Amino acid sequence: MEGTRPKAFVFVLMPFDESFRDVYEVGIKAACKDAGAYCERVDEQIFVESILERVYNQIAKADVIVAEMTGRNPNVFYEVGYAHALGKQVILLTQNSEDIPFDLKHYPHIIYGGKIAALKSQLEARVHWCIENPMQFLTKVDWHLEILVNGVSLQGAPRINMTHVSELGSEFFTDIIEIGVHNPTNRMISRETFDLALVVPPGVEIIGGGARSAVLQADGSYVCNLQRLPSVFPDGWESFCLRLEYWMQKGPINLILRLYKEVGREDYPFVLVPASMKDESSGDVAGPNPAAQADS
What domains can be seen in the chain, in order of their start residue? Predict the structure, then answer.
């Protein structure tokens, strides 16, 4: 009987622009399929009524709405407003946080920075949650935290130069990084609803306080579960420092700050350029990470 149950229907609101083709085909459509749902845009359907009437009809019928908000398309914004008025589960997507207007900032967004792989994994988790919890509202469990390292936002997989270094003999170095968490929403985010971890490559360790446990992965990296933060007030900040010990290396260190939430995990890759290596680097404090961009 389980196999004969109809799949959940996800209706997608987005600009009909060629630049969004991969976002839809590789990101949104694939995520919905893997979550056990099927999705369509209105331009994929055959209908006789006006397109606006069809959009109204499909929004009303849909189990979940996915809306691509990048570029602030007025048609998409209008349709999202209608979906919200009907009390629909709406998952908002954007490549750039600056495209989120004031009236929608308290709604959770998937901010994927053009990384389709990141979009797919996050969207799949949210669609699956909506299917499994049809009588609950996504806004109660989903939200956006801004994560920073040394004051630099981790959106866009930045390169971050270190400013402190101590030598531990000829082979080891130690650096201190500060992890900051900002709650840009208008409600309290309880400490029980999220957790943080840092994925470090072989040869890098967190020493002293800051890490609760570490799990070895098949590729030799470690997932280090970090200390629990207190609840974060609306527009509030929390921070803590980590001391990293690492082997003498030939290049920068690739790390991932991992955020765990009820609706799935979010990965924030970034690159640390230790102070001991800054003379060999470009000297930029922060900038895009070409390697991270290439995999999108």
Answer: 2-140 (3.40.50.450), 146-289 (2.60.40.2310)
